[in-house]
Protein 1
Amino acid sequence: MSILNRLPRLARFSSVLHRENVSRFSTKTEEPAIPVNLLKDTYSANLQTKNGAIYDKKPFKIRLEAGKNYSWCLCGQSKSQPLCDGTHKNIFLKIQLRPIRFNVPETKEYWLCNCKQTSNRPFCDGTHKRPEIQEKVKR
């Protein structure tokens, strides 16, 4: 007769340890939650149907602070990408697109879209990986 059969508490403890070891070596990874614009319903600029000029074909990683308001450049002309610097206000450029105002729920690093084609403005949703985006020449 096994010692584990004689000591049921030890057997339960042994099976718990075994399960923890199995889960620790699991190949599944937890995907981070997709961020959303908390001000999406507040500002009408989010309703713009057009996308701006492609600034870059890869996203930009930036540390954002919770509760602080930001303006993401949608026109693609800002010199301080991915954030707006007011270039769209230049009357000679005749830019009709307006920046997307947003804030984030927690302070951490976020990936902001630089191709300006995302459907989850201002956050990257992987749209830049599409062949038609990669083939376009950035301005």
Protein 2
Amino acid sequence: MNVTELLRLLQVEHDETAARAHSLREQIERLTAELADAEARLAELTATRKVIDGLTPPDHEPPPSETDTVYQRIVTAFNRHPEQVFRVRELHELLGLPTDESSINATRSRLGRLVRQGVLEQPGRGRYQKRT
């Protein structure tokens, strides 16, 4: 390879890199503007929530979220009762979940995953407790 060819390849790579840098700068500018818009909207929502909270009577307890997943409800139950050992059926009764066999088996699988993830421990067969 001669010097002329080497210089030509170097120029091609330089041009490609300069074009990529230009494209990235444009993306940064666009994302910076989008971030500013999102932060402004977030500030508006925070202010609105403060106003609404100020208008809500102090004894108002928000209802449990209907969008909580079963996993969230299970973890919350174990967090509220960290020392208690639950059987699946007892957990279902506490959470107001159906106690049919298929629901129980689905929860048994969920509890197994939580044990494998280290959130819960299994002190005995069919018994679950919050890991301490």
Protein 3
Amino acid sequence: MPIDHKQTYDGNNIFARIVRGEIPSKKVLETEHSLAFHDINPLAAIHVLVIPKGPYVSWEDFSANASDAEIADFVRAVGETARIVGAEPQGYRLLANTGKRAGQEVAHLHVHIFGGQPLGGMLAR
């Protein structure tokens, strides 16, 4: 169910619990400020999530409130993760939903990396 990206951060959301190690994940990359792991319900041959470890609800929240170190680490983690999973040579798509109208389902910033197959048009109609 889509969420309001203006809500207060809930430290018990599924991604916060993954960061704390309460829920297992198939990790791809872990840095000081970021974590990348395989999606449990992949929508493409390659489907990985990259999240900041900090308490950020959305891209808007993260870009306004994260430290420069967190932002740099996260952006680098997205690129490095794409290389690690083999998405980079043929191309890949990044997706970060923010808010109800975009279909954001977890109130923790996350970027999807899709690849490994043709991905079609940018938006479903």
Protein 4
Amino acid sequence: MTNRIDSTQKAKELIAILKAQHGDLMFYQAGGCCEGTQPQCFEKGGYYLRMHDVCLGEVEGCEFWVDRDLFEYWQFSHFTLDVLDGFGVGGFSLETPLQKTFKVHYRLFTKAELEDLVPVKTAE
């Protein structure tokens, strides 16, 4: 089946560092402005999901959740989690003190991929 999210080597390396410091992690990306435009990394359970938020899958064993409205907009797109040097648009994400920020690259699924997507789960 086709994953909805993958990660770059840089993201994998940063996630390993953050897991060593903080334990289990989760990601959340909202569809709003400011911090909502970038994925945020939290200790698992450190962000309270809203009803019907969508889990796209896991990155290095960490659930990657998106706002339900964002999912409606991007449901036909593959996400690739990446890392940039520098301070992101907020200070709530765990990578901020390391002067890194997570970023997502998007691409549309091919027709074949759309027919074989991993199902999503939603928060209740």
